[in-house]
Write a structure and sequence with these properties.
2 helices; two-stranded antiparallel ribbon
């Protein structure tokens, strides 16, 4: 495969504050769950350092708290959100070392 970037549109629309919170909480909580499982698995199976995952979980937890705060305030004031979100995937060749 040639190195190439693929772009996928995940979210595009206007949402109420409640809908925004549900959509974004689903994404953030899924990422937190992924990192928790990844860290647990790597620590148990390989005794690997899980500092990177733990740091990412902290960042995502702060993000989750900020989203809750912003969407709750917007809901009280009658605001909606326009959300546009894309994911860019870039193929990167990973060299496998010789055994």
């Amino acid at each position: 495969m040639k190195n190439k970037t693929l772009t996928f549109k995940l979210i595009d629309g206007e949402f109420s504050a409640d809908e925004t919170q549900k959509v974004l909480m689903s994404l953030v909580n899924n990422k937190i769950d992924f990192h928790n499982l990844f860290a647990f698995s790597n620590h148990i199976r390989f005794n690997n350092d899980v500092h990177g995952s733990k740091k990412r979980i902290e960042e995502l937890t702060k993000t989750r708290d900020e989203i809750i705060s912003v969407t709750n305030a917007a809901n009280q004031e009658g605001y909606h959100f326009k959300i546009s979100s894309t994911i860019d995937l870039e193929l990167v060749k990973h060299d496998i070392p010789n055994s």
